[in-house]
Amino acid sequence: MIEIERKYLVTSDAYKQEAHAQHFIAQGYLNSNPERTVRVRIKNQKGYLTIKGMSSATGASRFEWEHEIPLEEAKVLLTLCESGTIEKTRYEVTSGTHCIEIDEFHGENSGLILAEIELQDENETIQKPSWLGKEVTQEAKYYNAYLSAHPFRSW
Amino acid sequence: MIEIERKYLVTSDAYKQEAHAQHFIAQGYLNSNPERTVRVRIKNQKGYLTIKGMSSATGASRFEWEHEIPLEEAKVLLTLCESGTIEKTRYEVTSGTHCIEIDEFHGENSGLILAEIELQDENETIQKPSWLGKEVTQEAKYYNAYLSAHPFRSW
């Protein structure tokens, strides 16, 4: 499938009061190349393997393939990943008809908070909460695969 | 799981008379790095995603994870792979208690024929058919991931 999403910096922690869900995520990369990203993720004690292709020119559309895999297999696959496991807490907030996912990063990426909104169409209008800052959809340095090798605290 | 196998060059096509099965295989790599190889394979119209880790010091043992995936998804994932799809016909021959897989490569790797024997134990004895040549288990240039980027006809 093709995933369309916009990414933003987050300017305050006010989203925490609006969140209806919270998940802990650990993930690593079997390939962090944006042309063929292969990600191993553990989210709420479930394993996932995700493959993403190159982004469109606008940066908002990207091919994405994802399958759930057994947790124990995900744990073993994480040990094969490139160095730089990402750990983050994901909050979910509803805004209009959209679900906004806010990732609060930990460890070497702590201090960074990113919000992502998944869209049906690249030109869809978004109702922006006050804590949503600058759009960074096209900035490759905010890709988790990039953050894995070049963590926020080293910027 | 850990896969233990020995790899050999093949010196004649006499194996074809002994083969009890024959499959066409097309495969590409989402990562050809031997530390975390990610392979997409289509074999007999079925899709597979396989992840392999680094080999042991002897080259015979290697972590391997494999899941079957829908054929249509495998076809799309092949388009994301690094350049250099590998196409080969695999013959299966029984020798003593072992199954020997013989890969006859096509396209840019034509001229190369490799045999692989999967073992339960690295020190197991093998009954060698006359067409089995030099052992190349430890030679990384015979890895399919290497052949994908550096095909046999360019050697």
Structure summarized in a few sentences:
2 copies of one chain form a homodimer. With 155 residues, chain A is mainly β. In chain A, 13% of the residues lie in helices and 49% in strands.
| Counted beta strands of chain A | 9
Radius of gyration of chain A, CA atoms, in whole angstroms = 15 Å
> Which CATH architecture of chain A?
Beta Barrel
Tell me which protein chains meet in the greatest interface and how many residues each side has: A-B, 19 and 19 residues
How many domains is the backbone of chain A divided into?
A: 1
The amount of beta strand of chain A, in percent, is over 45%
N→C terminal distance of chain A: 33 Å
* Main pleated sheet of chain A: 8 strands, antiparallel, barrel
The sequence of SSEs of chain A as H and E is EHEEEEHEEEEH
- How would you sum up the global shape of chain A? globular
CATH domain fold name of chain A: Hypothetical Protein Pfu-838710-001
General description of the model:
The structure is a homodimer of 155-residue chains. Chain A has 155 residues and is mainly β. Chain A has a single domain (2-154), classed as Hypothetical Protein Pfu-838710-001 (Beta Barrel), CATH 2.40.320.10. The first copy, chain A, is 13% helix and 49% strand. Chain A has three helices and nine strands, in the order E-H-E-E-E-E-H-E-E-E-E-H. Chain A has helices at 15-18, 71-80, 144-149, and strands spanning 2-10, 21-31, 36-43, 46-55, 61-69, 86-95, 98-105, 113-119, 132-135. Chain A has an eight-stranded antiparallel barrel with strand order 1-5-4-3-2-6-7-8. In chain A, strand 3 and strand 4 (46-55) form a beta hairpin. The longest helix of chain A has 10 residues, at 71-80. The model of chain A has no long low-confidence stretch (mean pLDDT 94).
